[in-house]
Amino acid sequence: MAGTVADWRPVCAGLPPAAADDAVVRRFLESRFLAIAIEDADRPAGLFTGYYEPELTASRHRSARFSVPLYRRPPDLVDDAPYRTRAEIDSGALAGRHLELFWLADPLDAFFLQVQGSGRLRLLEGGTVRVGFAGSNGRPYTAIGRLLVERGELTKDTVSLQTIRDWLRAHPAEAGPLMRQNARYVFFKEVHGAGPIGAEGVPLTPGRSLAIDPTLMPLGVPFWLDTSYPVDTPEAGRPLQRLVVAQDIGAAIKGSVRGDLFWGSGDTAMHYAGRMKQPGRYFLLLPSAVAARRAGAS
After folding, report:
1. CA 282 – CA 257 distance, rounded (Å)
2. Cα separation, 113 vs 124, whole angstroms
3. Are 2 and 221 in contact (CB under 8 A)?
4. Alpha-carbon span 44 to 28, nearest angstrom
5. How confident is the model at residue 298 (pLDDT cuts 50, 70, 90)?
6. Does the domain at residues 5-51+200-297 carry the CATH identifier 2.40.40.10?
């Protein structure tokens, strides 16, 4: 879809320097790229959600308060092969194997950290560390927000990260069984340097990095995003139109017109990301020669 390395090398070599002003970058893009409208079964509109990097308090050592483990990747895990389920791991299937990387105080924090795939931990012992995705148990992802809507606990209009978390806190006896219906379990590693690191292997940029379905869209390619800001934000309903780059993937991101926008770290990022479920569309930016070949082939 996106051509070859040879198609991209001359374009990348001509990129303006990072300090160039917007007008220079815009002229470069307009002269070297063509925008291709992406549709899914002749439908140009799709769904755009958001994700973020949580900031949590953690410890390197287990205690009465910090008793929820974040596990490192087990050595017997094989990528894409089914491994222990969330229910089995929560019941102690990995206990005693010295796989605990850090300890959290709240099982909800651990669950949502796995959903986001990366995070920053403020350690009781001092300092801050970043953890990133190291693998999963190969089980399918189930959105517990969708389950709550199906059960009539939330509606499609009200479901968000915030309302899901509020419901779990208000129903502690049901929280564990509900979370275990999402069989997918994520393992972590300590990440040094800039981050978080996306599936493309580069640090994500708040508001500019997009997670896509890699079976349908190419990683590393720029897109023009055309959607809107989420509800309950100062810009609610205003157009959100900008250049983004496909730098990540997500278990829940499936479809030709489907994206997950990275909002950054901390509470403000969570506020935007947790509420974002906007209709929108995007355009794939391809080097002119690649776009011309595609047009000729079709």
Report:
1. 7
2. 18
3. yes
4. 26
5. low
6. yes
Q: What is the 3-state secondary structure (H, E, C) of 103-172?
A: EECCHHHHHHHHHHCEEEEEECCCCEEEEEEEEECCCCCCCHHHHHHHCCCCCCCCCCHHHHHHHHHHCH
Structure tokens at 241: 């139109």
CATH numeric code, 53-191: 2.40.240.50
Q: Which residues contact 215 (CB under 8 A, 6 or more apart)?
A: none
Give per-residue pLDDT as tens, 20-64: 999 999 999 999 999 999 998 878 899 999 999 999 999 999 999
Q: Closest Cα to residue 90, out of 65, 102, 113, 107?
A: 107
Q: What is the pTM of this model?
A: 0.86
Residue 216 makes CB contacts below 8 A (sequence gap 6+) with 255, 256
> Per-residue pLDDT for 183 more than 90?
yes
CA distances from 235 to 106, 232, 240, 242 (A): 32, 8, 9, 15
Q: 156 vs 162, 229, 281, CA distance in Å?
A: 13, 17, 20
Range list for CATH 2.40.40.10 in the chain: 5-51+200-297
From CA 191, how far away is CA 52, in angstroms rounded? 16
Q: Count the alpha carbons within 13 Å of 32 in the hemisphere toward its beta carbon.
A: 17
- pLDDT for position 119: 95
Beta strands (DSSP E) in the chain are 33-37, 46-53, 55-59, 68-71, 100-104, 118-123, 128-136, 186-191, 209-211, 222-228, 239-248, 258-265, 277-287
State the Cα–Cα distance between residues 288 and 296, nearest whole angstrom.
12
Q: Could you give the 3-state DSSP secondary structure of residue 100?
A: strand
Query: In the chain, where does the domain assigned CATH 2.40.240.50 lie?
Result: 53-191
| 93 token code pair | 């299937």
